[in-house]
Each structure stands twice: as C-alpha cells, then as structure tokens.
Amino acid sequence: MFKKLSARNSDLFIFAALILCGLKFTFGMNRMMDLGMCDEAGYLVNGLAMLKTGAAGPQAGPLYSAWYCVLSLFIKNRMALYYFNQQILTILLPLAVYGISRIYKIALLPAALMAFFILIAQVNLDVYTKIYHFGTIIVLLSLGLAVIPKKFTSSLAIAVTGALLGAYIRPELFLSFLILLTFYITIFAVQIKTHQLKDYLILFAVIIFSLVMIKLCRGVPFHFSSEDRSFCAFGQHFSLNWVHWTHSNLNPWTNWYEIIQKNFGTAHNIKEAFLYNPGLFIKHVLANIPHTFKQIFKSFMVHANIILPPTVNTNAEAYILITTLFGYLIFLFNKKLIPLKNNFHQNTRPLLFIAAYLFTSFISILIIYPRTHYLLFTGIMLLIALGILLKPSHISDALPSKKTALIISAALFCVTPSSFFFYNKTKTLEKPTESTIHFIDALKINKPVNLLEAEGGLNFYLSDNYVDYPEYAKENNEEFFPFMKRLSINMVVVSEPLTLDSRFKNDKQFFDFISNPEKFGYTAYTLEKTSSLSKNTKQVLVKKDLLTPP
Questions:
Q1: In angstroms, rounded to a whole number, what is the distance separating the alpha carbons of residues 453 and 482?
Q2: Residue 365: closest CA among 234, 226, 180
Q3: Pairwise CA distance, residues 358 & 382, whole Å
Q4: β-pairing, 449-453 with 491-494?
C-alpha cells in the first residue's frame, strides 16, 4: 500500500497544493461575503432539525441537509456553519474534479489546471447555493468508483447508486437514475448466462438500497405530474422571461404563481403547463437556449484575475483563456495529435455514464433556466467528457517527477488570487443581511416573534422564537392591517424588496403604517444604509410589548 502511495506522490503533491490554494483563495471570505438566504438557509435549518424531525422531503435535498446535520455536530453557530460549508465545498469541488480527471487518465498538468481554474471560476465561490457543489462531488465520487470493477454490470450498479444519491440532492437527477437503472437491468438480462452469484447479489443490493432510500426520504424526488419544487422553479424562471418580454413591473420571484395563472391557467405541474399552452412553453424553452451558451461561458471562464491586475474587468482574462484553449486545440487537430476515436473507444464506460447525466441536466436547464448554479453540474460533466475525448496522444500518462510536481504545485499556489475581488472591487464591505440579523439578535427578544420580511428567511439565523412570514404570505387583494391581524405580525423589516412588492406598493394602509409606526404601537429602528445600491434606508419596526421584559 505504502509503495502505491509513494508511486502517486506527484498526485498527492497536487492534491495538497489545491487544498492550500483553496485555503488561500477563501481566506477571510466570511468578512467579505454576506449570508445566503432562501433555499441555502433552508437546507441548513432542515439539517439542524433532521435528528428530531427526519428528512424534510424528497424534493428538498435531504442528503444535502444531512451533510449540514453532520457539520452541525462540530459547529453550533448557524452563521459560522454557513460560512464553513461555503469554504469547504468551494475547496472540495476542484479536488473532486482533479481526482476524477486522473482516474480517467487525463495527464497531470491539464488535470491540475482544470481543477485550479474551477477553483477560482465564478461558478465556484461566487455561487452561494452550494447544494449543486455537493451533488456534483457525490456524482463524481461514484463515477470514480465505477471504473474499479472489470465487469460492466458491476460498474453500472455503482453508477446507478451514485445517480440515486445525486437525485436526493438534486431532484432532476432522478431521471438519470431511471435511465441508468433501465440500462443496468437490460444489460443484466441480455448477459444473464454469464452472471455469477455475486452479480445477482449486487443487483439485489441495488434494488434494496433504492427502496430503502425512497422510504427514508419519503418518496421519489421528481416527477413531471405533481406540484413540487420543480414546478416552483419552472414558474419563477418562466416568469423571469415573461417579465422581460412584457416589461411588467411584477416581481417574478414572488409573483410567479400569479403570472403562471395568467399564462397557463390552472396548471399545477410542468406537464399541465405544457399541455395548456404548448406554444408559450416552447417559446420559453427556445429563449433559454442562447442564455445557456452565454451563461456557461461566463460561469466557467470568468474568474478571479491571475495575470491582469485584480481590479481590471474579469471578463478580459476569460477571453484570453478561451482564445488560448481554442488555439491550442486547433494546433493539435492540425497536427493530428488527438486520437478522438481511440479516446472514445477506450473510455466508452465513463462517457456513457456522463451522457446519462448530461441528457437530464440539459433538459432541466432548458425547461427551467440556465442560471449559474444550475449550470455547475452540467459544465463539470462537459469538461470531464471533453478532457477524456481530447487527450493528446503525445502527452504521456506517466507521472512526472516529484520535482516537476513540486514546481507545478508551487506555481499554482503563487498565482492563486484573493477572493476579495470577487466580492468587493470598491473595498467597501457590505453585508446587509448579516447586519440586519445582528441588529435583531441584539434586541434580545425572548417572546414569540412573527416577522414580516422580504429578505428570504431572516429567521433561519435567529433563535427559534422567530417565525418568518415572507411578503407573499399576503394575498393580492388583502389590506395590510387585516393581514397583520390574521398572522399576528409583531415585527416588520422594511426594505426595498418589501416596499416595491406588488402586494404592498399600492396598499395605503401599509404606507400609513411605515410612515408613522409609533401611532400603531411600534418602535422604529433605522439601520445604517446597508448597500450603496439601496434607495431606501432599511428599518426594523418592533411592537413595543416585545421590548418589555417578560
């Protein structure tokens, strides 16, 4: 064993270098990036509650919440837990990419460069919704393990298991699981005469494991014929396109259901939306195609500068990088140094598995929307596939000397930039969400609080006596004071998103309330301007009886 490790010293040096590069790149990031809200904060809270309540549901990324649950055993503070998770997954992703690249015999230098540029790319640290990172890492680990068995059906069994685990992180991967499972059972049946007892035991284990996962996670994670998180994602992103087409002043994120009803009637799932208005559905899909190519370039090629000064537009280095890559590939093809057919035939197994994932992810992206975090998984799979197919014949698979590996490692560490310039080119640190949470927490309110806000879930980082009511809890035609009474609201965070929301901006009672909160028994606290882009100063309005000692 030790001899094998010694033989892989070059790879160990690169792994260590990537870890150090990651630590350097993310150093002090919690002083520069704000807390993530909405879905990411929800996964964190679900993880904290998992030991008491179990999995939140099959569409809610239960395995990612389980990851948060494990981390919470060591880190109790919710803010610290959030930032630690951001850092560790930012570092683990390029490590997983490097590992799978080397397993698939991509040469050390291109594998190291690929992993390094993923580390500093916009698609990595800049994406705070880290569930996509976690899902990609789990799938890459399964693809790495799938090359170990010599028998194809055994490899398929591992790939099927990895796809199922991935589906309970990202629901759309359930389609990949079904594709690979169908292929596994078909190949197993065709080759039935060649199987031994262990092959039947593996098949039985895969089926039992799948049933256990479905039972533990309370169902299957995805199907087109139910109203679930996928329909919400479709609705919000269709609304994003619709608002762009119609120049509407509606907020696509919070008014999406209203927009869906206008365009798709009583549809409650993606299938019904397509059947109700196929023309508009297809228009949405076609509009997503050019966005996909544009966004995938931006997500993976735009990175923290390593050649140009840090404050220079980061797109400039992206164009330098893509021009260099294309020039190099053209040179290799002209010299006939890329044995494309040979690379394909030697790597049919991993390419088949990757194809199953790419098929699913592209369908999902086109139906929903090519946002950066959705493209993370797709882009990584594409890069690995291209790395396999475009391996030059003149580059040896042999490991370089320890000295060469050390030089590469040192060079990568030296050019690793600071994450500071991803978040603040003006050197003015702005963390509006964290500032608001610290302020509310400093009030030390121990009574039950029903909080109205449009920030995306401030209560996730506050104590358990806070219950959150988002802006969309108010009905469109409901007046403000009856709404307050119905939900017993006793704290309001007044911010731009709230005052501009369609449910509030035309409500006279709401503006009477925020213009003179003292009249209604509330104390107003004005927070310092938390963003240079804000037009309004944020306020926290607290019912006075909350501030009196119990």
A1: 17
A2: 234
A3: 8
A4: parallel
Q: Are 317 and 303 in contact (CB under 8 A)?
A: yes
Answer yes or no: pTM beyond 0.85. yes
Distance CA 225, CA 183 (A): 24
How many Å apart are CA 472 and CA 82, to the nearest integer? 26
Element (H, E) at 355: helix 348-367
What DSSP state is assigned to residue 541? E
User: Looking only at Cα atoms, what is the longest distance across the chain?
Assistant: 83
Residues facing 522 on adjacent strands: 543
**CA–CA distance, 132 with 517 (Å, rounded to integer):** 42
Say whether pLDDT at 268 is over 80: yes
**Tokens representing residue 526 in the block:** 């004005």
- The Cα 63–Cα 454 span in angstroms is 28
Task: Tell whether the model's pLDDT for residue 176 goes beyond 70.
Answer: yes
Please list the residues that pair with 526 across neighbouring strands.
539
Q: Which residue has the tokens 């079904």?
A: 178
DSSP E strands, 122-192: none
**H/E run at residue 539:** strand 539-543
8-state DSSP, 303? B
pLDDT tens-digit map of 504-527: 988 999 999 999 999 999 999 988
Q: Which amino acid is at 355?
A: A
AA letter at 510: F
- Give the residue from 361, 367, 404 showing the smallest Cα distance to 381: 361
Joined together, the tokens standing for residue 143 give: 């693809």
CA gap 452, 289 in Å, rounded: 38
Judged against a pLDDT cut of 60, whether residue 533 lies above it is answered with: no
Q: Which residues contact 106 (CB under 8 A, 6 or more apart)?
A: 114, 387, 388, 391
> Among candidates 201, 196, 194, which has minimal Cα distance to 157?
201
CA 166 and chain centroid, separation? 13
Which pLDDT tens digit goes with each residue over 444-459?
999 999 999 988 888 8
Distance (Å) of CA 312 to CA 231, 303, 328, 510, 519: 40, 11, 25, 44, 51
CA distance 32 to 246: 36
Distance (Å, whole) CA 360 – CA 144: 20
DSSP code at position 35: P
Which residue type does 36 have? G
d(CA 259, CA 236): 9
- Give me 193's structure tokens: 């005469």
- CB 362: neighbour CB atoms within 10 A? 15
- Residue 549 φ/ψ, nearest 5 degrees: -60, 145
